[in-house]
Amino acid sequence: MDPVSPAEAHWSYLSVLACPSCHTPLLRENLQLRCQPCERTYTRTESVLSLFTPEGERAMAGSHDAPWSRWRAAIEGLETWRKRQRRAPRLSSSSPADVHEDGTSDLALERLLAACTEGIDRPLIVDVGAKDGRMAARFSRPVRYLGVEPFVQGVHSEDSPVVRALGESLPLQNGTVHGVLCHAVFDYFVDGARALDEMARVLAPGASLALVVSVLTPHVAHARASHTRAGRLWHALSATREVGVRAAATLLPQALSLTTAHTQFYTRNEVMALLAARFELCSVHEQPTRTSSVLYIHARKRTKKRLPVI
Ligand SMILES: [Zn+2]
What we know:
Layout: E1 27-29, E2 32-35, E3 40-42, E4 44-45, E5 48-49, H1 54-60, H2 66-87, H3 106-117, E6 124-128, E7 144-148, E8 162-163, E9 177-183, H4 192-202, E10 203-216, H5 218-225, H6 229-238, H7 240-243, H8 245-249, H9 252-256, H10 268-276, E11 279-288, E12 292-301
Parallel strand pairs: 6-7, 6-9, 7-8, 9-10
Antiparallel strand pairs: 1-2, 2-3, 4-5, 10-12, 11-12
Zinc ion is lined by residues 19, 21-22, 24, 35, 37-38.
C-alpha cells in the first residue's frame, strides 16, 4: 500500500465525515467529496478539505451579516490581543509552575484529556477550533485525531489532519465520535449554543466533551463586550468590586479600544447552563487568572433514559 501523504490523511476519516448542512455521509469522487441530497461538492484548497455550509461560505467570504462580521473582526483582533497578553505582567510569583501567563495549566489539561479518553482504545477525537492541529501532541495515549478549523492554512502533520469547517456546523455524522475537544475557542463561536448542539450531535452516547473555556465575572464580561465605549468603561470601573483595583485597571485599555478580540464573553453560570441543557457534567477544575478563570470541564453526552419497568 502506498504511504498516505499528509495531504491525503483526512481521507482516512471519510467514514465519519458528513455534509455540514444535512449530515448525510459523503461520496468520494476523485479528489472531491459530494453530498447527493444537497447536490454540493466539497473540494480542497491548499491541500485542506473545505466543508462549509452555504452560510459558512458567506461568513468566510466576509458576509455583511452583523454577527459574522463581528466574528471576522474579532479573529483579526486576536493577534493584537495575544501580543498584549504576552506583554502582560506575570500572574504572581506564587503561581504553580505549570500555569502559563494567560492562566492555562498544562497539568489541568493533561488530567482532562486523560479523563476524556479513558477506557477507549485509540479513540476518535475531534478538536473543534483546532488551529493547526497542535493539540494532537497533547494526548498521552494514542488517539485518532481530526481537527476542525475554519482558518487552517495547509497541512501540518500526517498525525493531525485538519479540515476547514465551522464549529456551528460540524461536517461529521451523528453519534460517530468518541471525544470532542474544544480548547480555548468557545468565546470565538458566533453561536455557542449551536456549537454545543453540534458537539452533542456528533458524539456517541456517553462519549466525552473536554471543554476549556475562559469565564468572566458579569462586570468584566460587560467591560469587554458592551457595544459602547462608555458602557465598557463604566463596567471596567465597576469590576473593581469583583476582581480588585489592579486587575480592573488592566481592563481599561480594552474598554477604550474600538476592537474586541472575542466574539462572545461568558460568565461561569452561562457556560454551566448551556452545558447542563445538553450534557451530564463529570468534573470542573477552575484555574483563576487576573480578571477571569479558565474552566477545565469534563462532560458526557447524555444517554437515553430508560423508562422504569412496571
Ligand atoms: Zn447535504
